[in-house]
Design a protein that fits this description.
Blueprint: E1 6-8, E2 12-14, E3 21-23, E4 27-29, H1 37-43, E5 46-48, E6 56-57, E7 64-65, H2 68-79, H3 87-104
Antiparallel strand pairs: 1-4, 1-5, 2-3, 4-7, 6-7
The chain binds zinc ion.
Length: 122
């Protein structure tokens, strides 16, 4: 258990190799001491939450979020699918999501050679 609370400013995949999970925007989670933790913090993918922050919890899967808005977006994305999307629709939706995140949570890309889209680099 880490003392500090962290949450993701961008949706991403996080975890040790073989044990990754999808983290949504605004989701609270524990940093696990992965090789990329420092980079995630430096680039602004992950920020520490205020000590007194109240978190809201997803009633379906138990994921915790720093804002109601983050929880709502998570619910729409993870639990409100009424039909399966075609691969094309999935792509469109992923593009839109990235565009929105680029706008509300821009990364400082001068600090990395990598372009957008965090990938497990190791
Ligand atoms: Zn959920």
């Amino acid at each position: 258990m880490s003392e500090s609370l962290f949450y993701a400013r961008r949706s991403m995949t996080y975890g040790r190799p073989g044990n990754e999970r999808q983290i949504d925007r605004g989701q609270v989670f524990d940093l696990q001491g992965c090789v990329n933790d420092e980079k995630l913090l430096r680039l602004g993918y992950v920020v520490s939450a205020p000590k007194r922050a109240t978190v809201v919890q997803c009633g379906t899967c138990g994921a915790e979020f720093i804002t109601d808005e983050g929880l709502a977006a998570h619910g729409r994305e993870r639990h409100a699918t009424t039909r399966s999307l075609t691969p094309r629709e999935e792509d469109d939706r992923a593009d839109k999501k990235l565009a929105i995140e680029d706008e509300i949570a821009p990364l400082d890309l001068t600090k990395t050679a990598a372009s957008r889209g965090y990938a497990r680099t190791k």
